[in-house]
Amino acid sequence: MRTTIVGELRILLPELDPDDLDTVSDPTDDLSEATIEDALWRGVTLDGVTVRGSRLVGVDVSESSWEGGSLLGCEITRADFSGTRLSGISIERCAVTGSQFTGIRLTDVRLKDVLFEGCRFDYASFTRVAAAGAVAFVDCLLTDATWSSCRLPNIVLRSCQLARLELDSCHLRGADLRGSGLYDLKTGLGNLHGVTLDEDQLPDLTHLAVQDLHLTVRKR
Q1: Which of 30, 61, 123, 207 is the most exposed place for a label (fewest CB within 10 A)?
Q2: Whole-prediction pTM value?
Q3: What would the pLDDT profile of 27-36 be if each residue is shown by its tens digit?
């Protein structure tokens, strides 16, 4: 295993040797120590499937349904999860790079030691998503997404685009939002209770406060 540090967050990630992995193309009930490359799983139904210690490269899982099961100790690169529904799954010790999650719906998903880097989550819906350990989004697009009743304390959102990201009844205490624009967030101040910002974000926070408190600002 290897570790990476984002902000003040240390994330435990897999370190896989492609020579030790078997090549697999079809989804099964248990995918362990496999390389899955350019597989077309669009529209499939995955019930209780576990993917462990594997590399997923260029896999198309768009418009699919995945309920139960887990992703454990995986490296995911240039995958397409657009329009997919993930429910009741666990994602742990995974590095996800350059992948597309446009319009994905995550419900009751548990995250632990997960790094999303250079990924698209525009129009994504997170419902009751919980972080049980270190989770970071770096250089990710989260525009027009919705997070509802999520418990994501201490996560890092670094250099992410958050325009029109809607937060509803979320717990983000300890989250590090430095380097991400807040101006167009759709949220009440309560969802930002206890987060960490930098000085450059204070004007954005003021704008959110004016909106949340329905203040009228007039020139003298």
Answers
A1: 30
A2: 0.92
A3: 765 688 989 8
